[in-house]
TrEMBL record:
InterPro entries the record matches: Cupredoxin, Ser-rich/MCO-related
Listed Low complexity bias regions: 335-351
Record Gene3D superfamilies: Cupredoxins - blue copper proteins (2.60.40.420)
Leader sequence segment: 1-18
Keywords, ordered alphabetically: Signal
UniProt-recorded name of the protein: Cupredoxin
PANTHER family registered for this protein in UniProt: EXTRACELLULAR SERINE-RICH PROTEIN (PTHR34883:SF15), SERINE-RICH PROTEIN, PUTATIVE-RELATED-RELATED (PTHR34883)
Ranges where the record places region Disordered: 332-351
CDD domains from the UniProt entry: Cupredoxin
Length: 380
């Protein structure tokens, strides 16, 4: 639900003759609010209808359109799967006739013009909605020339995108006592914020999830974002040309996990596949917990082109797959990708090279009851 501040408040108070405005958020996959602004009176209700994929309604200011206003209104991220009907709404009630400014804080959306206003001055006022939208694109998108008077000139006529790095993932330590198969275990584990509730035990019927690496010559994994249970396996099937499956981290998508954290992560090594191959080499990992797993292709330039994948990404917050993908493209364009080679030998076509995912954090929920690393070590 949207929080309250600055003359705007959530309410369900009946107001005589009050109007209700419906604003579609991201309808049709477009990065827009529709309509982009409304002229409302005190007591009127704004009904924001969230469409797929994952957007916010976040209050900002005219001068900094893509920066959250401290204490301002914020719906938080509202992930909506495709096909959801009806889409979820959030409401706020207008308390005054002052201009109020909003944006979507999903990475890159504001810079592409995904902004909204209540009671903006009309054109040609310099603080009109069109001026607000232009400023959002200029400060955070790809507009040419200086974004504002405070922006320094550069040799290039095109300003570079001001990429906003998502916040680091949050986790905390927790202790739990679990009874399993007649024995009692006490374990300390890491509780990862936002992970779904699940059993701490392996699934009764584990599933093998197949991910194709480089399908049809594309620099991608298909599917690139999956959910897997404890005990499941994930099999990567390599297609032409020469790719890797290399574990990374959310904040460093294009660098091997062991490089950025010192924690060993899985690596397939490079897997060259002939263009006419019909039997494809594979690489398999086993899911031992519910912590998000991030990975990329270590071939030069592939991560920067968006060749990344995620397992059990938390889509309800900023550390979601879409942000991981955007961060990969940004990081990959600024730094060279790490090598994908490893001590693991390439498997012959049709064979499997099985590695267990080695993780520095054990996924579970902030509700203290998901995945227990010590217990899993005993059981598996």
């Amino acid at each position: 639900m949207i929080t309250t501040s600055l003359g705007l408040t959530l309410a369900a108070l009946p107001v005589a003759f009050a109007a209700t405005f419906t604003v579609q958020v991201g309808a049709g996959g477009n990065l827009t609010y529709d309509p982009e602004f409304v002229l409302a009176n005190p007591g009127d209700t704004i009904n924001f209808v969230f469409n797929p994929k994952n957007h916010t309604v976040t209050q900002s200011s005219f001068d900094t359109p893509c920066v959250a206003l401290p204490g301002g209104v914020d719906s938080g991220f509202v992930p909506v799967p495709a096909g959801t009907n009806p889409p979820p709404p959030s409401q706020l009630v207008v308390q005054d006739t002052s201009p109020h400014w909003f944006y979507c804080r999903q990475t890159g959306h504001c810079g592409q013009g995904m902004v909204f206003a209540i009671n903006p001055p009309a054109d040609p006022n310099p603080r009109s909605f069109s001026a607000f939208k232009a400023l959002a694109i200029a400060q955070n998108g790809t507009a040419s020339a200086s974004a504002s008077s405070s922006t320094t000139s550069s040799a290039s006529s095109t300003a570079t995108s001001a990429f906003v790095t998502p916040p680091p993932p949050q986790w905390q330590s927790a202790t739990a006592t679990v009874t399993f198969d007649g024995s009692v275990y006490t374990t300390t584990y890491t509780s990862y914020d936002g992970t779904p509730r699940t059993s701490p035990y392996p699934a009764a019927n584990p599933v093998d999830h197949k991910i194709v690496v480089g399908p049809n010559g594309q620099l991608s994994y298909s599917p690139a974002n999956i959910t897997a249970s404890i005990g499941d396996t994930v099999t990567f099937e390599f297609h032409p040309k020469n790719h890797t499956v290399t574990q990374s981290s959310f904040l460093h998508p294009c660098e091997a996990l062991e490089v950025t954290s010192g924690t060993p992560g899985f690596k397939s090594g490079f897997r060259p596949v002939d263009a006419n191959a019909t039997d494809f080499p594979t690489f398999q990992i086993k899911i031992n917990d519910t912590a998000p797993i991030w990975g990329y292709c270590g071939q030069t330039g592939h991560c920067a082109a968006g060749m990344v994948f995620a397992i059990n990404a938390v889509e309800s917050g900023p550390n979601n797959f879409e942000n991981f993908l955007a961060l990969a493209k940004e990081e990959g364009n600024q730094t060279s990708t790490s090598t994908g080679s490893s001590s693991a030998t390439s498997s012959a076509p049709g064979s499997k090279n099985t590695n267990a995912a080695v993780l520095s954090r054990v996924g579970s929920s902030v509700f203290l009851g998901l995945t227990f690393f010590g217990l899993m070590a005993v059981m598996l």
